[in-house]
Amino acid sequence: MSIKLSEISTKAPSELNKKKIEAKTIDIVIKIGELQHRMYAEGKQSLLVVLQGMDASGKDGTIKTVFADCNPSGIDAIAFKKPTEEEFAHDFLWRVHQRTPRKGNIMIFNRSHYEDILIQRVHKWITEERVEKRMNAINAFEELLEFDNNTKVLKFYMHISSEKQQEKLQERIDDPTKNWKHKAADWDENDKWEEYMKCYEYAINKSNINWSIAPSDKRWYRNYFIAKEVLRTLEEMNPQLPLLDKIDD
Asked: Domain 11-237 in CATH: superfamily?
């Protein structure tokens, strides 16, 4: 069944209590830290978390909150921005593959390899034929990580509304502490909202590895939703602390 983003709410369920959910999130974050410690000590499997979404959808805030209790030695994050000259000289997955997690670690992608079939497609910098071939390459790449390298790939689309994004972009102008985030071009991208949604739906529906659609208009629910899914995934991975072999007397 195909996912249509316009049919999925960007808001928190009305029956939820903010304070209770925030308290639950704290408990979940602690458990994530405990499981990350076990995975780091085990050194046999890894987790790649992909956070993809429009500007101001909360990727940085999610990373700061959800992984707050993790050991820095076993976790890292990379924000993929405009490719450098060196990166442009290679295939589009070259810079991404270098940052996949080693066994025992969690790697967080703030934006990802999907940028190469999103922004480039919206701006018509690549043909539809190349989009399809890149999508096939992305599927093969993620399957390589999961089935050949024991790396679980967990992907989130940060589902924010156009209205909420505009509100957040305006905050970057009005709040002096957020001025550094402001880019005039972000408003231009908001004008292309419908085209972006079309391209996101393509990427989500053509992926062999499923996405989680994280309602992101309310940060407290966004953080809870993503933290809960990260915890569920780590519990399924079930990392074990290595034990010394028993020595016969």
From this structure: P-loop containing nucleotide triphosphate hydrolases (3.40.50.300)
